[in-house]
Specification:
single chain; 353 residues; alpha+beta; Creatine Amidinohydrolase, Chain A, domain 1; Creatine Amidinohydrolase; 2 domains; six-stranded mixed sheet; 10 helices; 19 strands; binds zinc ion
Length: 353
Amino acid sequence: MNRIERLRDGLQEKGIDAALIFEPHNMYYMTGFTGGEGCAVITDNRAYLVTDFRYIEQAENESPDFEVVRVDNQANELSGFINSLSIKTAGFEEGFVSYSLYTDLKSKLEGIELVPLNGLIEDIRQVKDEEEIERISRAQSLAEEALNHVKGLIKPGITEKEVAIELEMYIKKKGSSSLSFETIVASGVRSSLPHGRASDKVIEDGDFVTIDFGIMWDRYCSDMTRTYIVGKVSDKQKEIYNVVLEAQMTALEGMKAGMTGVEADKLARDVIEKYGYGEYFGHGLGHGVGLQVHELPQVNKRGVKPLLENSVVTCEPGIYVPGLGGVRIEDLLVVKNNGILNLTHIDKKLEIL
Ligand code: ZN
Ligand code: ZN
């Protein structure tokens, strides 16, 4: 079943006559249009892409299955177009539509009730098709190539920022348009900051160095983390590293479709708690990855829904001890009915640089 059919099924289940899609990732997902400006309107038997004169030609090329409608003044004319459709309810993206857009539409729509879509499109996006998985894998393998390249440069004296810049230059030279988020390079005591952006800190002997980064390939994201140690290693560092590794391997072995995000999270959390580091694992096990680097499903204590086959998620337990440092190991994987398909192939045994 294609994406629009899945959306129509969902609309029918919720008793909604049409979806108004403003969010650029959702719009691209449903229409193929990369302009990001305008509104896709999908009813039970018609599909429109409403945009302004700057994008008409592009919309016609990128979205051949949609009727392209030109509306140069969205604030005034979009509601007129929606009013011309014979619908009684219109679903909107409650997490994206601004209060001002909502109130404006509400005041101009005649006899049409605005109702939240309740994450309908984001739910559909969880399950990836072959082409999406292919793009994510390509992003991931390029990211691994880049990490292997910079690993050789990490030594006492180089700054976190220099490592991050080198990574970015490498992936740009190889044709990736951009990063999926600002690269995290956190070393020494800074490695206990789970989201420590690369700083001017100089990497020193005995530091943990956590590198968490992702790239975009054909609009799809990758995400991975590796933690290294530079120079001399303490027993405590070794212990923390091996607990995180055991937690991750346990989760990877146990994860499969049908289990909830909570259950997946618990696989790793139980291991970390068993070794007495539970309080230092303060975030969830993972998250969905696709057009956005953080999307559904939730793989954490709030993930009450079962994981679906062919969703793409991360598995990234970590331990962060303030004043000492932190370790996170993150793989990107496809959830399958009988287990997982790991898209991350780079080594993760403790490596001393
Ligand atoms: Zn990450
Ligand atoms: Zn992540």
